[in-house]
Structure formats: structure tokens, C-alpha cells
User: Fold these one by one.
Assistant:
Number 1:
Amino acid sequence: RRNCHRARDRLRRYRSAGALYDLDENGERRILSDEERARAETAARAAVERWCE
């Protein structure tokens, strides 16, 4: 149940964020490309499907 809540929250944040970022090797923020963002959202949707059956 907790994993479902976390997965839904992550997907909601990804969808509403103006931009997604990751940290590079220097600890600096790097904005994700459109392709990387799409992959992150796909993974978040898969997590919702897995944990919220």
C-alpha cells in the first residue's frame, strides 16, 4: 500500500513538473531531455501498475 502511494505520488509529480532533472557526476542539476522525461514517466506508470493492482 505504501509503495502504491509513493508510485502514484511520483507519477503525479512527474506529470505536473515544469522540468525534471537528475544530478550529474559533479552533483549539479541536469535537465532531462524530452526522451529521458518520457522514459521516466513510462517507468513511473509501470510502478503504479505494479504496486496498485
Number 2:
Amino acid sequence: MKMSHGFSSCKLLFSSLGRSLPSLLGAALGMLGSAIASSATPSASEYRALGLQYRQQGQLPEAIAAFEQAVALEPENLDGRVLLGWTQHLAGQEVAAAETLRAAWLRQPGAVPVLNALGIVYLVQGELRSAVWTHTWAACLAPDNEIAWYNLALAFHRVGTHDLAIAAAERAAALEPTNPHPRWIQALALWDRGDRPAAQALIQETLDLAPQFGDRAFLQEDLQAAAFSPEQIQALDRLILSP
């Protein structure tokens, strides 16, 4: 009788479990899924890598969103802020880019990559005084910083200080001899200063180095990407293609 009673109790228990088994399994799987989701939350470095991947694919809104997540997770990481600010700049969000990079600069005023990026954003926005100050500070901190000298040359030419533009362009060209961009801005500054034979000689020398600039479409697209202003591009177009 006892064995029969025990068997009946076990049968009742398994019968009860059988009815509730789907809900128990569902709850267990839900808990497991939550645990997996929690452990699989991307880190800041993973968001930065994802943002770079999106940016390389030209998906700038998605890249910005990923970099924003990275900054939220690691506010002190300057690389993340520079990546965010520069991608905002690439997307044409110049005001947001300047705000992001200024915030990064305030956290570490001596960070040369931050100064480089912020100075370029200022230059593109036409805030030439801020661009000159920022790139001058970057060049003082890192005298071999070609980016700072090159962008100083662009800014100095735009404000009409041609001697300074020539000096900065010469320094940038010495640091990166195969880059034609400092040579182009130096040629413009020489021309505008009135030293036209030297400008024409430098133009021909640079065309020998980079003959692709003899194509108008290439010249305009490349110089725009290199932070030349529309006026500077038009002037070079005339000097190179309509001498």
C-alpha cells in the first residue's frame, strides 16, 4: 500500500510538472537570455571599432551613434571624443563637431590630436582667428606636426599674411615632401605676394610631382577635401589650368 501510495504521489508530481513545464522552461530561458544580453553589452572600445567600421562604409549617422555610445561609456577617453567630433565634421555637422572637440580640449588642453581636429573644424567654419590660435598651439606642442603647419598655411593665406603662409607651407612641405597640398598653398601665397615667377616654378614642380592635378574635376574634389576654401580652389584652378 505504501509503495502504491508513493507511486501515485510521484505520478501526481510529474503530472503537475508536466503541465507547468513550458512556463518553467520559458522563465529559465528568459533569465538566460537576460544574462547573455547583459554579458554581451558592447564595451566602449567595441563601440569605437563599430563606429570606425560604419565610417569606412560611409554610414556616418550610424558611426556617430556608435561613437556617442563609446563616449557615454568612457567620457575620459579622448580618442572616442576625437573620433566622434571628426565624424561629425565629415557629416557636415560643424557646430556639433566644434562642441565635441572643445569639450575634449578642455579635458586635456595639451592633446595634439584634439587640437589638430578642432583647428580644422574652425578653419572649415571660417573661424580663422580660432584656427590660427589652435594650430599655433598644436605646432608649439609638437613642432614636427605637419597637420598644424599645413593648416596654418591655409589660414594665414586666407587672412592675407602671405609671408607667414609661405613659411608655414615650407615647414609642412619639409615634414611631408610627397604631399602636394602645402606646395599648392605656398604657390598661391607667392603669387598673391607678387612673386609670380617663383609661384609658376613651384606650380610646375608640383605638377611634375602630382600630375593628376591637371584634371579639373580631380583638383576641385581633392582640394575641397584638403580644407581649401572655395576662393583658394578657384585661384589654383586658374593658376594651374589657365596660366
Number 3:
Amino acid sequence: LAALQYLDLHRNQLSSLPESFGQLAALQSLYLHENRLTSLPETFGQLAALRLLHLHENQLTSLPESLGQFAALRNLNLHNNQLTSLPESIGRLAALQYLDLHRNQLSSLPESFGQLAALQSLYLHENRLTSLPETFGQLAALRLLHLHENQLTSLPESLGQFAALRNLNLHNNQLTSLPESIGRLAALQYL
């Protein structure tokens, strides 16, 4: 299977993946959503050609540090899992444009999150976030940000650095004020 580029195993009953999964070196698109996966093998990071990864609607509680090795990854869908944290290595996903983490159990984000320079669409709604790292404002390419239905009490001043942000959803949080910098969001069309 060394030449395999597209693999669709979604809507099965998979609870684990073999360590040999990392040997699919040419794989570009991988659909593993709607299974019963609770973890991923550390060798998963060896899928260097991967551009699209759908892991939503599984039972993942954590992600391997090797996730940061996906240098070509553009689309990562992890919604509807049981993730409580993200590895620091997530910041190394330099090509990532779309990230969906909604409906997990995240209470915080790693500082490295701000390194996702190509990120355009970010879905973090329906988690347990109470704050955002100050590095969050470094997401310069961000156009869409969904943070609704969390437990946010404040937003970082760095939020005002989102020059490309068009859509910001903040409803159903515990915000008592907004940062002054929110007025600098010149491209914002929906709040």
C-alpha cells in the first residue's frame, strides 16, 4: 500500500489503528470519522504527505505529540471527541488552514497555538475554555473564529491583531467586558 493516497474508513467500528499505519507514506487524504477510536499510534505522525485528516465523532481523549510532524496538513477535523488538551506540537502545523475542535472538553489551549500562521477557519465552540493564550493574536490569517458556548470570562488584548477576521462568534460565554482592541477588527462583518 506504499502508493496509497486516499483512504476512507469512516463509519466503521474501529477502536484502534495498527502501528504500521504510519507506513502509508504517500497518503494525502484520510477519513477516519465516525468510528470508536480512543487513541492514535505514535507512528501516525509519519504520514508526512497528509493534507486532509478527518477524525471527528470518535472517542479520542488525547492526540500524540507526533501530530506536529504533519507539515503538509491543511484540513484537520476533530469535532465531537473527548479531547481535554492539545499537544504543544500542534503549533508546528504550518500549512493548516482549517481546524475544527468543537464539541470537545478543552479547558485551555497551548501557547504554541499562536504559531498556526496559515489558519483561516477555527471552530472552538462547545468546549470548556475559560481563557485564551495571549499568543492567540498571532493567527494573522484567521477569517472565521467560533468561540461560542464556552466559559470565557475575558478575551486577550491581542484579539485586535486579527486583521483578516470577518466572522467572530462569542455568544453563550461568561464575558463581562470586551478588550479595547476589538475596535481594530477592520474586516469584521459578523459579531
